[in-house]
Amino acid sequence: MSQFIEAMRPRLAKISKNFVADPRPNGGSMFRIYRDVRFSKDKRPYKENAGCQFRYAGGKDIHAPSYYIHFAVNEVFYGGGMYMPDPPSLGKIRDAIVASPVKWKAVKADKIFVKQFGALGTDHTLARPPRGYDPAHPLIEDIKKKSFFAIHESGVTAAQSASFVDDVAQTFKAATPLMKFLCETQGVKF
Predict the structure, then answer these.
(1) For residue 149, with 0-12 CB atoms within 10 Å meaning exposed, 13-18 middle and 19 or more buried, which class applies?
(2) Percent of the chain with pLDDT over 90
(3) DSSP letter string, 101-151
(4) What are the φ/ψ torsions at residue 32 (nearest 5 degrees)?
(5) Which of 24, 41, 79, 163 makes the best surface tag, with the fewest CB within 10 Å?
(6) What are the φ and ψ backbone dihedral angles of 123, each rounded to 5 degrees?
(7) For residue 136, how many other CB atoms are within 10 A of its CB?
(8) Phi then psi for 45, rounded to 5 degrees?
(9) What pTM value is reported for the model?
(10) How many angstroms separate the CA atoms of 137 and 98, rounded?
(11) What is the pLDDT of residues 136-189, one digit of tens each?
(12) Regarding beta strands 66-72 and 148-154, do their DSSP bridges make them parallel or antiparallel, or are they unpaired?
């Protein structure tokens, strides 16, 4: 995983210099192998997957805009966005969608984005509109989202190919419209 992260560093820098690829096994881009079992019925101590996150340089937690890669026995997926942002960050995204609907629609309609991802992830959505937002707003389904993340699924065989690092970089680049929008909502440079 450290070698993969190191290989991604120059490719990520070509997309944006504001995201960090840190190959250190502790405190870097790699997720720890231990599970948090405090509130889980499943008390197995180790994860059955490996993952890494290329966070925004100023982002101190998982809720900042970031790129992510997930490796498991039967699945490999990667993409970019903000996964379950904290309430203030989520409010900024929702407010930006309301204030700039044309810009938001352009993100979702970008040809390269759509070709690579299809659409934004649909999990983690509110059943009802969030308080303070017009239930009749034409983009209410997007406003109801609790995560703004685009995922590309890849086969395990593809992850074993020599071109995998370049494929991931190409996918990260395809997420640029979303990542720029999210960075802008959080008041940071892409």
Answers:
(1) buried
(2) 64
(3) HHHHHHHHH-HHHHHHHSS----SB-SSPPTTS-TT-TTHHHHTBS-EEEE
(4) -70, 160
(5) 41
(6) -75, 165
(7) 7
(8) -75, -20
(9) 0.88
(10) 8
(11) 999 999 999 999 999 999 988 888 888 999 999 999 999 999 999 999 999 988
(12) unpaired
